[in-house]
Amino acid sequence: MQRAHEALLEAIFAERDRIMSRRGFLAGGGKLAAAGALAAAGLPTIERVAALAQGTPIPFTSDVEVLNYALTLEHLEYAFYRDGIGKFNFGTGPFKDNIGTYLMAIRDDEKAHVDGLTKAIQGLGGAPVAEAKYDFGYGTDEEKFLATAQALENTGVSAYDGAGQYISSQALLTVAGQIVAVEARHASYLNLLNGTLPFPAPFETPATEAEVLKIVAPFIAGTGTPTA
After folding, report:
1. What whole-number distance in Å separates Cα of residue 65 and Cα of residue 126?
2. 164, exposed or middle or buried, with CB in 10 Å at 0-12, 13-18, 19+?
3. Continuous segment of H or E residues that includes residue 220
4. Which helix (H) or strand (E) holds 131?
């Protein structure tokens, strides 16, 4: 079972790479088109997104930028659960728990994160990014939905760890720590559910904005109403 789920995750990441290549995200005019969609979805400028797509590290310059980066990811995660949970009958988990009930709890956590980050950005005088249009690609495949959920949650943890260094406010850093701790619990549950180790390493590996972008970019289809 574990080997099957690991193979599925590898296939998902391979598909992301294929999509990135197909869309021409890293070269030519396709890069600007994709950058424009991602900028509209929450990253500050087309130039920034295009640079990140080529792996160029660009430090955040304000707490608002960091929070909007986090909000972009939280929008994505919340929409994933909100629009997908009702399409499947998940049954029970490894401890005879109701998987659907637990996923709804994760969904509610993500909504709370969206609301909290939105208020924090507004409190700093910033403009919160809006939810984008998404295409997660799971269709009617329950196993792929759960594997994608696992990938998103683990990516979220690494993203928070990577961006935390740019937060100047101690109060906001505490809030980010509170959020990433919950995201890590989500990731642990999804790891277990998918047959992988809930705590795969003693130290989390932080992810740069460019690394996170490579993972989530294929899910962002533009602005508008999200789709499954």
Report:
1. 9
2. middle
3. strand 220-223
4. none
Under the banding of pLDDT at 50, 70 and 90, the label for residue 209 is confident
* Location of structure tokens 């295009």: 50
Dist. CA 113–CA 128, nearest whole Å: 13
Statement: residue 121 has pLDDT above 50? yes
DSSP state string for 92-104: B-TTS-BHHHHHH
Give the phi and the psi of residue 202 in degrees, each rounded to 5. -70, -20
Q: Which amino acid is at 13?
A: F
- Between CA 133 and CA 112, with CA 123 as vertex, the angle to 5 degrees is 50
Full set of structural domains in the chain with CATH: 2-15+62-208 (1.20.1260.10)
What sign does the CA torsion over 197, 199, 201, 202 have?
A: negative
pLDDT score of 97 more than 50: yes
Query: Is 157 in contact with 187 (CB distance < 8 Å)?
Result: yes
For residue 126 the two structure tokens come to 């910033």
Which tokens hold the place of 199? 């705590």
Rounded distance, CA 108 to CA 105, Å? 5
Tokens of 37: 């969609």
Read off the pLDDT band of 60 (50, 70, 90): confident
E strand or H helix that includes residue 69: helix 63-84
Tokens 């950058």 correspond to what residue?
35
